[in-house]
Amino acid sequence: MEADNLALLEEKIQRIIDAMSQLRSERSRALDAAGEVPELKAQIASLTRELEAVRAERDALKADKDVVRQRVQKLLEHIDTLNAG
What we know:
This protein is mostly helical. Helix content is 98%, strand content 0%. The longest helix has 83 residues, at 2-84. It starts with a helix and ends with a helix. The model has no long low-confidence stretch (mean pLDDT 94).
């Protein structure tokens, strides 16, 4: 009977050891992930700034395109006027 109790105690201790080992591994992974957070935040901030710059450039190019389109339209109208006259 004492042997059974001892075997049960050994099993419980082994389960506790296994659980502690698993918790340590999970803690280590969590700390590694937490260490990456500041770097990821910095990357997000950098990409956000880059995105805003690209958007501003896109808007400037659209404005330039509209100006060029208007100028070409005026030139075509002028050519049509010359051809008609």
